[in-house]
Amino acid sequence: MLEARFSLSLDSFTLDVELQLPAHGVTALFGPSGSGKTSLLRCMAGLEHPPQGQLTLNGECWQDSQRGVFVAPHQRAIGYVFQESSLFDHLRVEDNLLFGFKRIAAGERRIRLNQAIELLGIEHLLARMPALLSGGERQRVGIARALLTSPSLLLMDEPLSALDAQRKAEVLPYLQRLPGELQIPIIYVSHAIDEVAQLADYMVLLENGQALASGELNTLLPRLDLPLAQGDNAGVVINGLVTHYDADYQLLSLQLPNSQLSIRVAHQPIAPGQQLRLRVQARDVSLSLSQPEHSSILNLLPAQVVELAAADNPAHLLVRLDLQGTPLLARITRYSSEQLGLYPGQPIWAQIKSVALLG
């Protein structure tokens, strides 16, 4: 368990949070610019020293203002990945990696040098100078360097924000591997919901220096009372079990959790029995009172209306649905809602285009 409580004033901004976070997997600190994400991360790292603060990881106290405890940043078992990789430009990649690795006693090293190199796919870069690396390669080296300090906690401050879409796509698969390969909790700062949807298990939603909500990602994303449900990027994340791959049409079949329902998605081959995380955006879900026939939309799923709420656009309406225990959001017009006569508890058919699903 990671327990954090901080109260900090910086000019006109005040951070005031109290959190209990899981000490495993990826926890995303999510919110708009100026919401306090980086300030909270810096407090965890000890780079900010608020007058009121407490930080404990699995019973080890790094900070407690009431007892006068404050462990200096360099004495905390923390790896920190910044927006920029901050490599030593006069050292080769291998020497950048060894810089922190050599400072950890051999008996205290939790991550092997070759392990970090393989995890981040940087073996072919070891002899290069940082100036010869792409932005994505620099970040992968920076992440490997942070891991080689054998941290008990990895803090990542928008590590993909300086990269273009192609470089982000290059780095994301490596980030997705980390939780499964390493038993190190990761706190991941981002204002990009697509990154959070692909990486995080748990989320803290920040606004104006306070935590509006915290909990499992699959619990927060469908909530219509939170800002997450507003805007074009609203949607949910579904973890499905691969049951079949149609090689002729390049379609995966995924069974929904604890359900007999399945979804088909255009995707590269994945072996049956594997898990795949899907992001379903609310704008890509349409509704019908009866089961459509002769439709190009492959995913026609029986659902139930759970809740209706106003959207940020006055012409739109948000609908929360239940797919035999799996939440789903739909964003439709108010006109369509009135034509369908939608109400909570109503049986409905949800339609999701296979080409719109993001795996």
Main sheet: strand order:
7-8-9-3-10-11
**What does the radius of gyration come to?**
23 Å
Report how far apart the termini are: 30 Å
Main beta-sheet strand count, sense and barrel state: 6 strands, mixed
Helix content: 10-25%
Strand content: 35-45%
Poorly predicted residue ranges:
none
Q: Secondary-structure element order, as H and E?
A: EEEHEEEEHHHEHEHEEHEEEEEEEEHE
> Which structural class should the secondary elements be placed in?
alpha+beta
Task: Round the mean pLDDT to the nearest integer and report it.
Answer: 92
Q: How many beta-strand segments? A: 20
Shape: globular
Number of helices: 8
Written overview of the protein:
It is globular, with a radius of gyration of 23 Å. The strands form four sheets. The protein has a six-stranded mixed β-sheet with strand order 7-8-9-3-10-11, with helices on both faces. A five-stranded antiparallel β-sheet has the order 2-1-4-5-6, covered by helices on one side. It has 359 residues and is an alpha+beta fold. The relative contact order is 0.12. It contains eight helices and 20 strands. Helix 2 packs parallel to helix 4 and helix 4 (135-147) runs parallel beside helix 5.
Task: Name the features.
359 residues, alpha+beta, six-stranded mixed sheet, 8 helices
Outline:
This protein has 359 residues and is of the alpha+beta class.
Topology (SSEs and partners):
Elements: E1 2-10, E2 13-21, E3 26-30, H1 37-45, E4 52-57, E5 60-64, E6 69-70, E7 78-81, H2 93-101, H3 113-119, H4 135-147, E8 153-157, H5 165-181, E9 186-190, H6 193-199, E10 202-207, E11 210-216, H7 217-220, E12 235-246, E13 251-255, E14 262-266, E15 275-281, E16 285-288, E17 299-310, E18 316-323, E19 326-333, H8 334-340, E20 347-352
Parallel strand pairs: 3-9, 3-10, 7-8, 8-9
Antiparallel strand pairs: 1-2, 1-4, 4-5, 5-6, 10-11, 12-13, 12-15, 13-14, 16-20, 17-18, 17-20, 18-19
